[in-house]
Amino acid sequence: MIKKSLAIISIFIFACISSVTAQQLLSLEQCRQLAIENNKTLKIATEEERVAYYNKKEALSKYFPEIQFVGGYLHNQKNLYLIPSSAIPSSITLPIEIPNIGNTIPVSDEVRNAIHNVGKVDIKNIWAGGFNLTQPIFMGGKIVAYNDLRSYAEELAKTMKETKMTDVIVEVDNAYWQVVSVANKKKLAESYVELMQKMDSDISAMEQEGVVTKADRLSVNVKLNEAEMTLTKAENGLSLAKMLLSQICGLDISDAITLQDENISNVDVSKEADAMPNVDEALVNRTEIRSLELATKIYEKQEKIALADFMPNLAFTANYLWTNPNLFDGYEKKFGGMWNVGVVLKVPLNFFSNSSKLNAAKAETRIKKYELADAKEKITLQINQSAYKLNEAYKKLAMAKKNSEKADENLRYANVGFDEGVIASSDVMTAHTAWLAAHSDLIDAQIDIVLCKIYLNKALGRKL
What we know:
Elements: H1 2-22, E1 24-26, H2 28-38, H3 40-60, E2 66-75, E3 80-81, E4 91-98, E5 102-106, H4 109-118, E6 120-121, E7 125-138, H5 142-208, H6 214-249, E8 257-259, H7 279-285, H8 287-308, E9 313-324, E10 336-346, H9 351-420, H10 425-460
Parallel strand pairs: 1-8
Antiparallel strand pairs: 2-7, 3-6, 4-5, 7-9, 9-10
């Protein structure tokens, strides 16, 4: 019996522990961290940053000599013969006649072939190879501009990653506070259902006493059903909002999560002293502005690279070559080699195509400058709009607080009047509906201020 009781207790404890561990309690910072770790866009940005880093290292190598090996093998169908077979006579005519022979001596095929092979050059199997070293001396400033370009590209990759990280944080914060908003509306709907259930109970008792009619009770029943429907919608909305937050954080949407701020009754909406917008601060801090400035510098460097195509290029070269067969000491069927050094000068003469390339680079630079100026104007507008929306949100909050206080007082008087029989049930239900709407507006106003602060800080380029 004792063993059975211990087993039951163990199972109960295990079930409780499993229930607790299944629920993940997440703060806003934890949600941000999860989203940053799991976001695919940020992972892509990290790889792009790594690509820019290696491209910068590759650009640095342009200052150093380039060394390469070249080798080859060639098999020919035929050899070379320096003495043509047509030049070898089939007979030799003597100036005098020899008895029994005459003055013509025939040349045998063996002799003719031997003479033909004297001029044979064996080229059926040819091997060649060599090392080449090329050191740039003057490239018209192209190498310096290319290295500067790659440095700016690396900085651009970093700022673009910061921009994407800010977007992810804003997305997380928006989803997080939406969950908090829906969770508070769910609690509000639960309170509304409790109020309607109490009223339904009271109206049923009053009907039995003959104080109210059946129509009054049915009206309350309809309102109770509406309240329960509102609660169901709030529960579904909370589940969907948590699914969205889980997806943004990289969690499984089926995971049960609970937010640290989910059960707070009042959201911190204190008015900050530095809420006034500062456009100069934004133009310094916004990563989008830094990205466009870097992009402009990149295109300016591309102009210099295009301009370098007009300049002569000078390079030092050194080689070591060998061949088999070789001709360094007659014709030998073995490897033989030599080294050489020299200077290579390249003077471009295709000025027409180079001019087109330079003009295109200048046009692209102007485009980036226009985009930068346009972005500054839009950011200025965005800051003013965000500040205006925040001020409007504070005004809405003040009105929502007054409305909720009046709705609380109105509901209290309506309940007292209904209990004393001086107020009709329809008026009480109207007070309940007004109470629900006022408190729902209060929740929306509080969350709206939180989100407006986030959007304003993002517009100003502040750390979120």
